Amino acid sequence: MQFQSLRTLTTSVALLLAPACVGWVVGLAIRRARRARAAGVVWPIAVLALVLGTAIAADARTFIVGIWDAATIAVLFVAGFLVALHRVFSDRRNVQVSIAAAALACLLLEPLCTFLLPPPPAFPQSDPAFLVSEALRTSAVTQMSTTTSQEVACQAIYKTEPSQWNRFAPYAQDFQPRAGARLHVLHIGDSIVFGGPGASFTDDLDQLEPDVEHINAAICATATDAQLAIVRRWVALHPIDAVVMHLNPNDSGEIDEPFPCSDWKSLMVYDGGVPQLRFPTAHTPDPREMRLRLLLQNSPPPYLLRAVVDSSAAAAHLSAALVSLGRRLAFAYDRDELRGQAHIRVCLSAARDELMARHIPLVVDILHFTGAVQNRKSDNETMKATAEALGIVTLDSFGPLTEALDRGEQPFSDAGGHLNSTGHAVMAKWLHEQLPAAIERARRR
Fold this sequence. Notes:
Strand content: 5-15%
CATH class of the largest domain: Alpha Beta
Number of helices: 18
CATH topology of the largest domain: Rossmann fold
Structural class: alpha/beta
Number of strands: 9
Order of helices and strands: HHHHHHEHHEHEHEEEEHHHHEHHEHH
Helix content: 55-70%
Shape: elongated
Distance between the termini: 52 Å
């Protein structure tokens, strides 16, 4: 496990030791006041519940740290408290055995997650921020919480004035087409397409095709429903010459997630077979009425996991599980892959028909997870078959990425799942070779 910096390491150590030490001091004070240690199992459970509840309730009012950080601090506090006060820890060997067992469990968890579970999800990030307000400012890129990305998408869909989030994506209402460009090609997708500082295949495409403007309208942690709404906004406001929808394998699990601007319900409704926005204007409830829900939805994984998430499979899997659990607890979102595939089909069908009516060609690009490419086993055949069955011209990035690996190149970042600068260059070169003909085929359909 690698820490990003000395600051991250010292913060992590402090978060491990400080709550445990404070709990130990409190337990020691109580032990001296009662002149004896305590025994039993009921009161430790009650103390844990009380401290956890207090920490979470206080956090819901203050929004200082995420709910998982508050829970971690509470558990560490209670651990120190029990070491000082409980009779079982009067023997130092029991303390040593407990610490050794916890450390061994953490060490065993890493190889088990690496070898028994599928490749972990990616959370590309720089040094993690501790305060939840700071973490949320970067979560549109780190994906440690989806709410910031959802706010970005909400403003892309509904906002008419310039957006405060335009550093994360060009918004249709802010956009000024590049003078002299012969074509304007709109690319839509999630974090794979969004890229990062100095790494975006749309930027590379602009270099390869100086007479074409490749507009990167991708927004992290979005699926086909939000992307369809964003495409509709762009083509309504600008003369777009072609649209490329980049589909990720996880879109079928992320479509119809609750959005803040949709009363924390799904963005789209599918009555009549054509997906439409649930609300014609943004419909955001009063945050004061749902502080705990918002904290659950906004909370990144605990800092201790974020500190090593890009180098630890166990941390990545646990982080993804906690993010998913928070979203489920907050707004009872139920993932349904089959329903998701059906709604993706409806969204693609609507995009095809609406763009065809405007004489705008649509091309679908199939994306893949890192593990699938490395194992030479495609993981997005269902999405590909859906697009092809709808008569949409479809490209598949599986070939060029596996060929890059065969050449000894590494197109993926260390965080896994996302492309690095080499991967973006590979995608750009491939799209430069394939996309013009694909757009022309789509234009003739």
